Amino acid sequence: MSKVILEVKDLTTKYITRFHEDVYAVDHVSLKVEEGKSLGIAGESGCGKSTLALSLMGYYFAPLHFTSGDIIVDGQNISGMAPDDVRKSILGNEIAYIPQAAMNALNPTQRTINFIEDVIHAHDPKVSKKEIYELARDRFEILGLPADVLEKYPVELSGGMKQRTVIAVSVILSPKILIADEPSSALDVTSQKMVIKMLLDLMEKGMIKSMIFITHELPLLYNVTDDIMVMYAGQIVEKATAQEAVFDPLHPYSKGLMGSIIVPESGLRNVKLTAIPGVPPNLKKPPTGCQFAERCKYVIPECKTHPIDLREIEGDRAYRCIFSEEYLRKAYENG
Amino acid sequence: MKMADEICSCLRGEGLTKIFGVGRKLTLAVDHVNFDFSEGGIVSIVGESGSGKTTLAKMLLGLISTTEGEIYFMGKKRDISSQKKKKEYWKNIQAIFQDPYCSYNIFNKIDTVLLDCIKMRDGKKLTHEQKVAMMTEACSFVNLKFDELTNKYPFELSGGQMQRLMIARIFLLKPKVLLADEPTSMIDACSRATILDMLMKLRDEVGMTIIFITHDIGLAYYVSDRVYIMEHGKIIESGSADEVILHPKEAYTQRLINDVPKIHEAWDLSTVQYSLT
């Protein structure tokens, strides 16, 4: 077993609304990312994917509040640290984060190289400009970005190029883990492929040791990550390898998600896509039982009365459902 | 005979060209495009960012002028020279845009949004009950419940629900042509399937011609009957969906197909060409 880079134990974080209601957007989430592995997080909008990303970075600014749990980055517990300390000592050199609109992070009045100087000087003010330039040039060369991007202003770059530039800059200090939150969903398929290639290159060339990739695009996760975790209403409902999650999902919600995959393959037009009816529960008043019960096809009365625990099964998989593996597989076979 | 009439009544374009800019800095956005959407059904226009898809859509809607070329609608040349004629034209062609969050007037309640549509279709003589019945029908067409939406504002809904409400509007307006410009790119994969299914329902039940614009050739393959591929302002390939996507003739089409991640076939990342701009 290789070294664990990031370990999260029972992390719970909440939003406090202006009417002082608690919304648990991340609800007892545990996960582990090993060196050289990538973890994908899937789920529909509003299920807590992005909040989980922010919580992992210790980015607790109101209305987001830390409740309980441990976040251990390479042996160091960061869960109790003040957000400002996390920013100074953890972000950038231990954890890097790429938001969806990463391209907007570039300052329109600054050349890329000045932006890189700012990033490095924030962590170590002693590095000289020449060293920074050489480091940046080498990095850009390895990642297939032309060196003249360094001298350009953001307006001179295309969307995909800006996104790749920001990614290259955010990992310039070789962080241990990269959290990519929908890094490609604002781009067209061609630029998306370049961004994905770049992320995989980062892993391969050792600039990052592991990656968490968040998206709702399942075909993308399947191609990029080793493991997939499906989230629903702040909870993990299924954990499996990418292969298992896509071709043999256990939780009815994951099954529904996999039924909505659209890829240009010859069989597609004969397949009837299954959309999940209904909307996710209101997390201000979460249901007592299974969070998914209202929308589930296979619901029985017990689902709504007892909270359901994450059930660990063979092969490092887990799912959160009242039914057994065999029952669910049979139910899916019969439609 | 009515059927035949309806079939030839649709949209056709000849030599459509749009040039942006003045003086020496000219950009050729759409380059002598010919198309014929008179067969009806769902027609997709696919291309990467900057290939001129949205410019073409805006010209079809009459939101921007054409530099050259003619659009024929319902058998005759389109005339949108005055505001009144434009409004008349928009009764027959409607659009759904990418961003549901800025498609609504934020001061109008959902009832008002839908009532306006009924008004536009000469529904002034209807009684209140008839209007409510129409709105309820439109909402149930898109799996929304009208009782739960009354007295709400559009921004209280989720992105997917807003986009569905947009389709409910279209259902009430019953235009001959619907232009859907990337209607699913801002909502998640799960609601996406619902939206696409509703577009197909509009085609089958209302008989609307739908022009579906996307950069994701997978979506185009799922919904459309015919596909047009656009590159640098030109239509380079067209044909039935099966023909174009399963047996592409152009290298560009092949590249668009390769760029979409797949699950049953391998997704080849080694061929990625980094663009240098």
Q: List segments of chain B where confidence is low: pLDDT < 50 over at least 5 consecutive residues.
A: 1-7
- Terminal CA distance of chain A reads 39 Å
Number of helices of chain B: 11
Q: Helical region count of chain A?
A: 10
Overall SS class of chain A: alpha/beta
Strand order of the largest sheet of chain A: 6-7-8-3-9-10-12-11
Q: CATH homologous superfamily of chain A - what is it?
A: P-loop containing nucleotide triphosphate hydrolases
Q: What does the model show?
A:
The complex is a heterodimer of chains A (335) and B (277). Chain A is α/β, with parallel strands linked by helices and 335 residues long. In chain A, strand 4 and strand 5 (76-77) form a beta hairpin. Chain A is globular, with a radius of gyration of 21 Å. Chain A is built from ten helices and twelve strands. Chain A starts with a strand and ends with a helix. In chain A, the strands form two sheets. Chain A has an eight-stranded mixed sheet, with helices on both faces. In chain A, strands 2-1-4-5 form a four-stranded antiparallel sheet, with helices on one face. In chain B, the strands form two sheets. A six-stranded mixed sheet of chain B has the order 6-7-8-3-9-10, with helices on both faces. In chain B, a hairpin with a 6-residue loop joins strand 1 (11-20) and strand 2 (27-36). The model of chain B is unreliable at 1-7 (pLDDT under 50). The chains are: A alpha/beta (335), B alpha/beta (277). At the A-B interface, helix 5, helix 6 and helix 7 of A face helix 7, helix 8, helix 9, helix 10 and helix 11 of B.
